[in-house]
Amino acid sequence: MARTRPVIVLENVHKRFGKVHALRGVSLQVELGEVVVVIGPSGSGKSTMLRCINHLEAIDSGRVEVDGISLDRAQNINKVRAEVGMVFQLFNLFPHLTALQNITLAQRVVRRRSPTQAATIARDLLVKVGIPEKADSYPSQLSGGQQQRVAIARALAMQPKIMLFDEPTSALDPEMIKEVLDVMLDLAKEGMTMVVVSHEMGFAKAAASRMIFMDEGQIVEEAAADQLYNNPQHERTKLFLSKVLH
Amino acid sequence: MTTENSPGSSLSALTPDASARRRGRLGLAIPWENLPWWGIITLLVGVFVGYSALTSTRYVDALTFLLDLPWDRDAMSKGQAAQDGTWSLTVTPGMAPGGYTLFAEVFDKTGESVARTPTMNVVVPQGAPEREGTPLPMTGETATAIQLQTSTPTFTGRAPAGSQVVLYDDYAGNVLRILRHMAAANGVLLTVRTTLIAFAGALLLGLLFGLMRVSQRSPDLTIHAGRRLLIGIGVIVVLLAAWPGSRSLAIAAPMAAGVEALMFLLPAMPYTLSTLYVEIVRGVPMLVVILYMGFAVTPALRAATGEVLDLRGLPAAVIGLSFGYGAYLAEVYRAGIQSIPKGQMEAARSLGMSYIQAMRYVVLPQAIRVVLPPLGNDFVSMLKDSSLISVIALPEVLQQGRLWISRNFRAFEGFNSVMLLYLVMTLLLSLLVRSIERKTALPGR
User: Fold this and answer.
1) Taking CB atoms and an 8 Å limit, are A81 and B347 in contact across chains?
2) CA-to-CA distance for A197 and B149, rounded, in angstroms?
3) Residue A55 Ramachandran class (φ > 0 left, ψ -120 to 50 alpha, else beta)
4) Which of A49, B85, B118, B140 is most buried, by the most CB atoms less than 10 A from its CB?
5) What does pTM read for this prediction?
6) Spans of chain B, pLDDT less than 70
């Protein structure tokens, strides 16, 4: 594989929450078009790492670089964030806006698109995630899976270079997981750079170019998806997978 | 069942389900939600009017006084009819140029109206001098307006000896003038006016300080510290240029140190200042705030600015109430903003919105819906507390009520009327707030 410029670089990143040392020297490089799936037990720092990438958490030491821009605390972070889409575990849709307005809001106030242009993009994205008929529904009128798909469309509307997924299916009913994963698979096929915190093995096998196992704030093991599943090198990884895979 | 929600359907009240739901603690099956709101008010006023008509006729007089009625005429002049049964009234000081519709009303010794002359249209031309004019008898309607030669005209007529005669300017047809009169009226209208303006001010103050209260408690002061200190130097230079007296080391050095310290601590200021404001003002009785504003701040400002800045009267009352209530509203806003899950702010920020944009488009629209009921509560509360401004001699409802009582020696009628007017105002207000809540409610919530 030809080496391309990495779009995400983490270098020896440390993050503390009071006495809790959440990230203990995490280093990671993600290249353009890569899909990286992160697994690990709860409290291992997966989400924190993801949130450091778009600066929802400020790091204590180390270096984070996104698309060639170093995220130091005095930077104008909003420009970087507009290039990095984030999908949350609990969707975090804006409950006072319809699905369509959820998708158009940031386009209008951040990208300064006209309402009609923003709405056109939003409707196209709703078609893409498979719920064009829900444009005028409020989040409370949508199922969990539909809400998460609107949330993905909302992030995509900013035309980000990178998409971060923080356990996008773990708050969903089992039968709704597939509809969200399908959308994510499509995205991966289109060549979107993605970092996904998820334990969905099917998705990882189908889409991940790389998998990462994290524990206690450190990256323990890093390998291709098949290899990490079938032939984990580390004892801790084996133990975790034996519990997850039954 | 589709009849369930249709208002006025008497059948729905009879179905077991609906009636069970409507039965309150008393076991009464009154369909309250179907009673139009004005029905409740009419009921209240009706009971009151019926009761008072049976017990005393003084209520009409008290309510008229408290409402500062009539709103459609101004008394221009008043006097007594002479022994020979004639009266003559001169308007002083002079009338402003313009058209007037005048009539005279005759009252007997008990104050009852006994007669009224036909109206008479007159025009006071520009630059009419203040001099004695030929007396104009007020007898019949005039087809065209009479051009006066003076701004202090005299009118005559006949009335029983000793009766009171009042010359009125009637502007019942002139809506603008009625509104202008109402805007200057005492009693209820002053209370309404004060409350509306003061609440608008408190809403703004509360929002401002509420937003400051949710800012970071101990922000990282090193971020952009250099930039801030540079601006501080600019401020110092401007101060030195504008105030020649400061150009000595003894003054300039502490001033520079103070400005730079302030600039360094600037990010921590919003939280600190708003907390100080809330804790201090909330801890002081509203009566003290109003007295302080009326009798300490206002005279001091007047003296300091050479009577240019004169806040006496309504401005002092409005500022005092706004300032006092802003502290409560700041806490209401703070609670509302903090009740919105953190994920909302994070989602907005992750889309590239700035903190201000996220507040403006995502957090505040949701917070407003949360704080509407407590805001309505404080609005009603402020309406009632506006009675406190009577201590700085503003003739609002309570002050006027006490004046009426001291003139008529009728405490029950006076206070009952005051209470009725407050009740009507607060009830209307809660209904307004409830309808706003209904209109802004989100579907499916």
Assistant:
1) no
2) 93
3) left
4) A49
5) 0.81
6) 1-35, 53-56, 140-142, 444-445
